[in-house]
Automatic annotation (TrEMBL):
This is Phospho-2-dehydro-3-deoxyheptonate aldolase. The lineage of its organism: Bacteria, Bacillati, Bacillota, Clostridia, Eubacteriales. The chain holds residues 71 to 333 of 337 of the full protein. It comes from the Bacteria. The keyword Transferase applies. It comes from Ruminiclostridium papyrosolvens DSM 2782. Keywords: Transferase.
């Protein structure tokens, strides 16, 4: 169902007028984790003014360490809704457990399935039973085939609105957090009708490399980007080193418009 053998035209996902997979590049932006209402709403207003269409933020944080900040859970979702109401942006947030799908579904416009859960098949089926779009991140060491099969689990339940998200894969390299697989974009476009977005923040782990890879992603055919933005990265509770300050995000958006025009 994810393959273009049966469906020849690209899937365009329409989230209340924001179309992913169509003509326009859609940018999702916001902090890694929702920390407090003031910072979140300020960041939301700022990324909206810079041209983002979708707000990102984590309320359930799957951290590598069980002792790290795990997210504000439902309080975080409520803050996210405040950000959406203040800006009119749509929202995407991660769900990490089948038990939370119903709760997250009450708030979000798009479910995010994180890299660590790409092969959590029960979770995939559960979001497949909803009628909300799903941003499916590529697993840390998943092949493109495995990733498309994960998408298949969602679509098989009747939910056709899957957005694939390349966020870098594990390689022997250590200078960057992960290795962004830009070749996955044209390779997927070759075999699937699903839209593909790129997450240069988790791919690099370093804000300095984010603009270059964001531009590379547009140039190689991505339908959109998801970028971490934080008002004060050194104090971020999660992923500060890879977060852009709002001003840098704004200038990146201007650069991206030029790249999008050129391709
Ligand atoms: C995130 O988007 O904050 C996140 C945890 O990403 P990933 O699942 O790609 O590591
Ligand atoms: Mn993050």
């Amino acid at each position: 169902l994810a393959s273009n053998e049966l469906q020849h035209t690209p899937t365009v996902i329409d989230i209340g007028g924001v179309k992913i997979g169509g003509e326009e590049i859609v940018v999702m932006a916001g902090p890694c984790a929702i920390e407090n209402e003031k910072d979140f709403v300020d960041t939301a207003i700022s990324v909206k003014n810079s041209g983002a269409k979708i707000l990102r933020g984590g309320a359930f944080k799957p951290r590598s360490s069980p002792y790290a900040f795990q997210g504000l859970e439902e309080d975080g979702l409520k803050i996210m809704v405040a950000g959406r109401e203040a800006t009119g942006l749509k929202m995407v947030t991660e769900v990490v457990d089948t038990r939370d799908v119903e709760l997250v579904n009450k708030y979000t416009d798009i479910f995010q399935i994180g890299a660590r859960n790409m092969q959590n098949f029960r979770l995939l089926s559960e979001v497949g039973m909803t009628r909300k779009p799903v941003l499916l991140k590529r697993g840390l060491s998943a092949t493109i085939e495995e990733w498309l099969m994960a998408a298949e689990y969602i679509i098989a339940e009747g939910n056709h609105e899957v957005i694939l998200c390349e966020r870098g894969i594990r390689t022997f390299e250590t200078i960057t957090r992960n290795t962004l697989d830009l070749s996955a974009i044209p390779a997927i476009k070759d075999v699937s009708h699903l839209p593909v977005v790129v997450d240069p923040s988790h791919a690099t782990g370093n804000w300095k490399y984010v603009p270059a890879l964001a531009k590379g992603a547009i140039a190689t055919g991505a339908d959109g980007l998801i970028i971490e933005v934080h008002p004060n990265p050194p104090c971020a509770l999660c992923d500060g080193p890879q977060s852009l300050r709002p001003e840098r995000f704004k200038s990146l958006m201007d650069e991206l418009r030029l790249v999008a025009q050129a391709v």
